[in-house]
From TrEMBL:
It comes from Letharia lupina. It comes from the Eukaryota. This is Thiolase-like protein type 1 additional C-terminal domain-containing protein. InterPro entries: Thiolase-like, TLP1_add_C. Residues 226-315 form the Thiolase-like protein type 1 additional C-terminal domain. One of its GO terms (molecular function) is acyltransferase activity.
Amino acid sequence: MVPGRMTPVIIGVGDVKNGSQNVEDAIEPMQLMLQAIVRALKDATSEHRIAEELKSSIDSVSVVATWTWPYADLPSLLSEKLGIQPRHKIYSEHGGNQPMKLVDEAARRIWRGECKVAVMTGGEALASRTAHRKQSIKQNNKESAQLYAEFAKIAEQNEFAWNYGQKTPTAQIISTALTAMVRDLRRGDGQNGLILANGGVLTYQYALCLSTRPRRDGSAYPDKDPLPSHVTDTPVPTVTIQAEGEAMIENTLSFFGQTYTVEFNRNGTPSKGFVVGRLTRSNHRFVANTGNAKTLEQLSSGNSEPVGRIGWVKRGDKGRNLFTFEPDANL
């Protein structure tokens, strides 16, 4: 351990869930965050006096950006409500990776001696490897269903988890993983825990390792990320904005695996297809919508694997690239 450095320790966690659907029970995000912070203080100590002393010692407040409620300066507003004057007030960018990133950054401030007690909070008012693995669509769908069913078995044990029929959660749900992991480690369910938080459309990742024991080699808390924040040593394919010609929904993973997805109507019928493909002549990538009902049907049927099939892409009347499996004169 480096002399004079502090080892960051998570001493309290708190969750809040407003399960009511009644308007009169609505709670804005800031109030949810305040309740969660109070619960975290109570989790750290059962003595009111010590909890108040701990609160007054908070010198770092980090807040995950909200989607559902605009605030001019949420960290300052929370500090005012708590009656504290932290030296560090941080408001993150949007993204599911941000909760773990904020925790890591707060831990580094503690390690460097820049602060002693840090709070991270967040709240909202919102109640293709298939072809590469040579799986059929139905096999992949079955595997995915089994995988997420196992996730659901774990999630349903958490009283703060989101349930089907409720409004979809945002980045704040990652914070629930953190509080759950802390409780698991406290109970002795393990010694080390790994949390992976993804943001964007799986474009941002942040991993956090928690442990009930110090590092075996006695080293200090990492002062910087082991990897760069942006990947720069991977070849990036050339993208053609206005594509035309013979094309393929590609099945190789040498750069970025090309793929497709289908958007469905509420009645279960397919409404629109989205394709990421490769022009066979130039090897350039493109993005397109499905160009006719027959192509959309083939993408959504599940009867055959579209990835790797040859098709045609052309610019449509509205400027969008349109992809079909057969030459379409209507394009």
